[in-house]
């Protein structure tokens, strides 16, 4: 073996070891977080990984994603080619050229084309980063550096091939169109010049490889080429928006004010972020000029983790605060309160990072350990704890809306459904009309229903999302034990927040109840012919606004639209951002009860979007959306446009005589 | 130095109804809460504790289940919570109530200098606003009622200057310690209990003092010591309200109807 080959062997072996060591050091940082099980249902996880990491399914959900997918698939292929490059460089016997022609030639062809595509993708990435970045800081050194290194790596690849072709050392020449084309420029170069060029290209190619594996992958955001695969494997399999349950024993910590109190998956998320900016593009808070930026949130957690790791490993307290500092690596309190938990970021993120969980854990810390929260929440917290509704209305008035229907106590024997009315449905004047409309529809369809009246407690959605897990836990336990006591089997709700909480959150409390939102129940009844409408009542031009908790969080997009179609004979129009990409009304995550002090108002942004469609009626499925859009219309001075729940639309058609 | 907050457990009056047959309060199943004004008294005792190093004690006279009220006080951080409970304290009016509370405060003041007794302005069930002043006169404390701000507290000179909130005006008053202060809502924003404190409060021992400890003459406490008693409770007849419109459709028309009504009742002049 020549001395240069020994050098290469040593260099690449050392580099390989350093790569593995760096990777281990970085990834093992996640052990500083709390435990969490993400190894259940292995089969599902594995197929998710194939589909979303190797299949790039979510990456491709945005138009520009194709460029990334090309990079990714090309890199997978080129990793194999480069292995051959390194091994062949040291042990010529391992060179692919020893393969039979029918194998070797096609491999050469594919390599050539894939390399050209990669170069094309590099150019596209440069153009995009420079002229159309998703966010301004995307034009940073690291971003350009990686693209440049890949470009150099590819150019060097063609350099090697072109010299070999010119020197006549490559037998697959006719199968290598790009390299062949490049070799034309070398026709006049002397053989020694070619030898030198070849060696130079080889070293440049090798060096670029070393930079990628020993710097870019372990120490930059490009670690995501590894962690993103893990994140697709570890992704939440059930409802990704449901927070984890906290237990309350003396001596425990509540919520998270440091990376060590987040879970290992939260930390892994921070290492998996590609900084693509899709989450911030979708985020209603960031869109309307709030402090919260979900990309920044994840980035800050990463910076915090890296900044504190050494101290924490020594058993010391973190030096950089996770909450409240203004420097990079610290989350501002205002940002923590800005989130509507709408889940748009969850939906947009190509690598399944779970942003709101982090926010909620920090809210839990602020509320439960520090009693520090925006002051308007004090009333909400106390009212909900003392009178089990957000307004502090008398519990005895919970069933008042029901007086036209007579007494309707729930009874497991005689009722098909428990109608869980919810606080808005029971107390809010506007929403009570929806409650009554639904009662009427159920009666008309011969569905028997009953209510819990003053025994029904707030489902606790807002409290949970605001980090007041302690009081949520009390409400959940009481509601759940009431369901069990009364033998409840099926529940219908008219509020997506109750629906989501009863269906997904209460599952953590061991309830086996079928929960259905009224949009799906009404559709069922219409389709089964149990509910017949004497005719259709037009609502004029009608558009449908997706509620985050019915739509994105629970995947119900078509039922309400079909209900509207059956009740009016017309297809409802869509807003520009709809279904999975729907835009929040601004009330989720407990924001319903908070002032919106900075930026523009989320509900106004949504109302303006709706008004572009020139609607007469905006249809909703949620009492919060109803309030927010109604208020937005008032602020816009639009007194002709109405907001209606789909149940009201159906009830109008039902009453047509 | 002691900062004592007197807090009373009251039924959540928004939920109390009067039985029309028997003319008595229907208290069954009604949750008890800390009298809202007393949460401000409690909060202020905690603030002087934090600022001036006083010891904060919460006192409540009531049946054994009033312990829950004192646990809430523990959850926001009082140093000690004492329940004054004895069968013979039952049925007390304001005189008998202030006798018991005064005796307890006197007892505490034997071991440690008394600084401030905080009481709520009034309760939401009894509504008399007499207990605080009753304690002050029984113990010979200066009484500063309706306080919405503590301007200055001089621990050397042992004086306090407060602002009183009166109809249409404020009054700045200064007095030597010890004092009895009654609190209005504007005084402070009561803190929200943290979870670790709530959990700890469940473990804390709430002391109960009965009359064996206080040693009061049974003729001066409870029903026997109460010269006033309630003869009857009833809800006064009220004019039935009327709902105009359905709250959704035709706001202009409904507003017009409302104006006509108000005009016809001479409540609006054109
Ligand atoms: C209609 C009616 C019926 C009643 N029936 C009975 C009865 O049958 N049996 C019975 O035992 N009592 C009964 N009472 C209670 C009793 O008469 C008074 O409630 C009690 O003496 C306190 O007076 P108050 O509620 O008006 O307090 P206020 O004088 O308005 O209270 C001022 C402040 O004094 C303090 N304070 C008052 N009471 C206490 C307390 N118990 N512990 C600690 N601090 C306190 C609080 O700081 C409070 O904010 C009745 C009261 C009413 C109005
Ligand atoms: S949940 Fe919605 S509001 Fe919160 S960070 Fe994600 S996109 Fe923004
Ligand atoms: S969190 Fe996800 S969507 Fe947001 S920048 Fe990172 S990878 Fe992109």
Description:
Chain A has helices at 3-27, 42-54, 65-90, 101-131, 141-166, 177-183, 191-219, 224-234, 264-272, 278-282, 284-287, 294-313, 333-338, 344-348, 355-370, 377-387, 423-427, 429-444, 461-465, 469-485, 496-505, 518-527, 558-568, 602-611, 623-635, 646-654, and strands spanning 417-420, 449-450, 490-493, 514-517, 542-544, 573-574, 617-620, 642-645. In chain A, strand 7, helix 25 (623-635) and strand 8 (642-645) form a beta-alpha-beta unit. In chain A, the strands form two sheets. Chain A has a four-stranded parallel sheet with strand order 2-1-3-4, sandwiched between helices. A four-stranded parallel sheet of chain A has the order 6-5-7-8, sandwiched between helices. Chain A contains 26 helices and eight strands. In chain A, helix 3 (65-90) crosses helix 4 and helix 8 packs across helix 9 (264-272). The termini of chain A are far apart. Chain A is mostly helical. Chain A folds into three domains: 33-52 and 236-242 and 252-373, Fumarate Reductase Iron-sulfur Protein, Chain B, domain 2; 63-222; 391-654, no CATH class. By secondary structure, chain B is α/β, with parallel strands linked by helices. Chain B has two domains: 2-220, Rossmann fold, CATH 3.40.50.620; 237-270. Chain B has helices at residues 36-52, 67-76, 94-111, 131-139, 195-203, 211-214, 251-264, and strands at 2-6, 9-11, 17-19, 24-26, 32-34, 55-61, 80-84, 114-120, 142-154, 159-166, 169-176, 179-183, 207-209. Chain B is globular and about 70 Å long. Chain B starts with a strand and ends in a 6-residue tail after the last helix. The mean pLDDT of chain B is 92. Chain A binds chain B through residues 248-250, 254, 367-371, 373, 375, 378, 381-382, 386-387, 392-396, 429-430, 433, 470, and chain B through 12, 14-15, 17, 31, 33, 189, 191-196, 198-200, 203, 246-248. The site of one iron/sulfur cluster has 15 residues of chain A, from helix 11, helix 14 and helix 15.
